[in-house]
């Protein structure tokens, strides 16, 4: 039994992370999700981790959103001091090709040394903008302004 414990201590355990998020269509050109937001099935996303000092790419993995616009990717390694981001790669929709400024990437922390108990990491939603706002958006955005005052 002692040999088994020693063997386990000698090799690192495999505790994969699961990165989850969603990709949306900014149908109102609002810069954020609204009640008119739709989600993109088949959008390509990537997780990239870079060395904090040199900015060299250390890890990269691509995934695709499901029918609800959500993605889930497994990352096997602990990326300790590296900077990791989810980012938009492409949209399958011709009417949503331009990434929304400031919503085209999301930072994720992929280390066990940060107090998180769960191995699931949730990335902020990322979005593509419509070429033109859909009908009803002016009224919707006006409602948001009323609540802001």
TrEMBL record:
Keywords: Disulfide bond. It holds the Pfam family Pollen_Ole_e_1. InterPro entries: Pollen_Ole_e1_allergen. It comes from the Eukaryota. Belongs to the Ole e I family. This is PROTEIN DOWNSTREAM OF FLC-RELATED. It comes from Salix purpurea (Purple osier willow).
């Amino acid at each position: 039994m002692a040999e088994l414990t020693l063997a386990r201590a000698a090799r690192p355990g495999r505790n994969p992370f699961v990165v989850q998020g969603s990709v949306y269509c900014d149908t109102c050109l609002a810069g954020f999700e609204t009640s008119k937001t739709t989600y993109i099935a088949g959008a390509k996303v990537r997780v990239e981790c870079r060395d904090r000092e040199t900015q060299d790419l250390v890890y990269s993995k691509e995934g695709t959103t499901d029918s609800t616009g959500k993605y889930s990717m497994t990352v096997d390694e602990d990326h300790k001091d590296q900077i990791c981001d989810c980012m938009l790669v492409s949209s399958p929709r011709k009417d949503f090709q331009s990434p929304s400024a400031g919503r085209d990437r999301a930072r994720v922390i992929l280390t066990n040394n940060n107090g998180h108990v769960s191995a699931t990491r949730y990335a902020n939603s990322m979005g593509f903008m419509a070429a033109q706002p859909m009908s009803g958006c002016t009224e919707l955005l006006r409602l948001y302004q009323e609540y802001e005052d």
